[in-house]
Amino acid sequence: MGAQEKSQGNSNSLQRVKVYRLNEDGKWDDQGTGHVSVDYLERSEELALYVFDQEDNETLLVHRICPDDIYRKQEGTRSVMCNEIYISVLSTVKHFTQ
């Protein structure tokens, strides 16, 4: 089962997030609000973050999780930053199944 199928079936149990991408001017562009899940990339054993739009279920983000990347939680908020991607958590998860 792929990440998009999981998102469609379990959207109530997924974390709601806001996705921003750093533009060429060094400013954060709003990419949209959606649901995030972690799943394997298609035909790969590598994990990735998938974010699907909360309105139309279109893919907002597919980001390969790399151990060499620096992921950090922003102080005092529920946010994650990695390279040029910023994800702000909007709701709390009661449970998450992969």
UniProtKB/TrEMBL annotation:
Domain PP4R3 EVH1-like intervals: 15-81
GO molecular function: protein phosphatase activator activity
InterPro entries from the UniProt entry: EVH1_PP4R3, PH-like_dom_sf, PP4R3-like
Superkingdom: Eukaryota
GO CC annotation: nucleoplasm; protein phosphatase 4 complex
Pfam families according to UniProt: EVH1_PP4R3
Protein name as catalogued: PP4R3 EVH1-like domain-containing protein
